[in-house]
Amino acid sequence: MTRARTLPQCRSSSHATPGETLLPAENEQQAAIPAAGDLARRFAEVRRHSLALAEPLSPEDQCVQSMPDASPVKWHLAHTTWFFETLVLQAGQPGYRPFDERFGFLFNSYYESLGPRHPRPQRGLLTRPAQAEVLRYRAAVDEAVLAFLPQADAALRQAVELGLHHEQQHQELLLTDVKHLLSQNPMQPAYLPAPTAATAPAAAAPLRWLPFEGGIASVGHDAREGFSFDNETPRHEVLLHPFELASRPVSCGEFLAFVRDGGYRDPQWWLSEGWATVQAGSWQAPWGWSALDEAVPKLFTLFGTQPLQLDEPVCHLSLYEAAAYAAWAGARLPTEFEWETAMRRSGVMLQRAEATLHPHPRAAAAADGTDRPHGLHEVWEWTRSAYDPYPGFRPLPGAAAEYNGKFMVGQVVLRGASCATPPGHARLSYRNFFPPAARWQFSGLRLARDIR
User: Fold this and answer.
1) N- to C-terminal Cα separation, the chain
2) Phi, psi of 289 (to 5 degrees)
3) Are 164 and 145 spatial neighbours (Cβ–Cβ below 8 Å)?
4) Judging by DSSP bridges, how do beta strands 289-290 and 243-246 pair with one another?
5) In the prediction, which pLDDT does 229 show?
């Protein structure tokens, strides 16, 4: 097997050198090399999906940034395009000329090795390039990538696959960033019209405690399962004590009981940093909740402001809120290893029943009547695990080394997938991660407790 070339670890230019690429062909962390034809089909599907997500939004909607942690829709569309242009086309085609030399500075996110970049908190100031120009940029790069794929070597095909999963991450961020943006508008506009339900919303199944034996368990990604990010590897063994995991995520109604019991006013349930955050932010309930004194509070959704549905999984929680609720409920959050082991032992598959977009969590009804965990593709589930490298972790070489490894401090792991996670992107070894105070994502919790 021919060893592929890799990008240097540091570069002063914002462009890859022609003939260099991002990933090695021989890397035990990677699954089988995708075929060019399959990759072209998936490339077209993923790129179309991003445009479909942006379609309900005006050019004005797509330019605004509601907070430093979020990005404008237009920036998401351009950044994911820059990824392919820089790490595939410029890396693999000597003489390739960028669509616009200035875009490397505007749309690089955090890759120090690829040159300087526009400050993240100021992305909402980029009224130029206009949205129409960004769409032309996407179309030009899409055409060039599809023309290049038949001649791309194994390492460059891996770079394309990484770019597709990277874009799927941004598709979810696009929805959560839009939700935060629209929530700041006093008109409380909707991203999509509320669906007209033919039947009443499903009721959440009763919460059951599912027991799992302790012992040595293998966790992490198995290359036979397909693609993974480097932070899911290497697969390794962990020691678990006997534990129980809740059959479904915590519901809005259950969390409302915590709110109405004074949970946000009682420091006994909170981590010290969490209590300080609650006080500093005057938190009284999960993000997006309002009208707390009414019999049924309100919830801001991508369908606009709606009555809180008590059976739906609670979402937009920080780690602090999830941990406080767990303490109040006499339980705890699972570790990421307990979560993964429970799902694998239960034979759970992380995939949507349908490919249509439903950007709001739905009640976790147990479809098959078994005692398996369910409600899995609705909210990301906080764990009590710090986002640390696995034993033997090796970041990918070159620019890809910056994708995950450098963020392994001060973050907490979430497992599962949410209602906004694109079809085909979820897997049991996936390690999402955010700072403990973050709560604009579709993040909820599933309880755990020790078996004594």
Assistant:
1) 52
2) -80, 145
3) no
4) unpaired
5) 95
Q: How far apart are alpha carbons 268 and 261 in whole angstroms?
A: 13
Decide: 159 and 87 in contact? Cβ < 8 Å. yes
**pLDDT of 197 over the 60 cut:** yes
DSSP type of residue 430: -
Residue 88 CB partners (closer than 8 Å, separation 6+): 22, 145, 148, 152, 156, 159, 160, 163
Encoded tokens for 220: 């992490």
Closest CA to 356 of 422, 285, 261, 435: 422
Q: Quick: pLDDT tens for 43-84.
A: 999 999 999 999 999 999 999 999 999 999 999 999 999 999
How far from chain centre, in Å, is Cα 407? 15
CA angle 321, 323, 328 (to 5 degrees): 95
Report the C-alpha gap between 437 and 67 in whole angstroms: 14
Backbone phi and psi for residue 212, each to the nearest 5 degrees, phi listed first: -140, 135
Residue with tokens 């709606």: 306
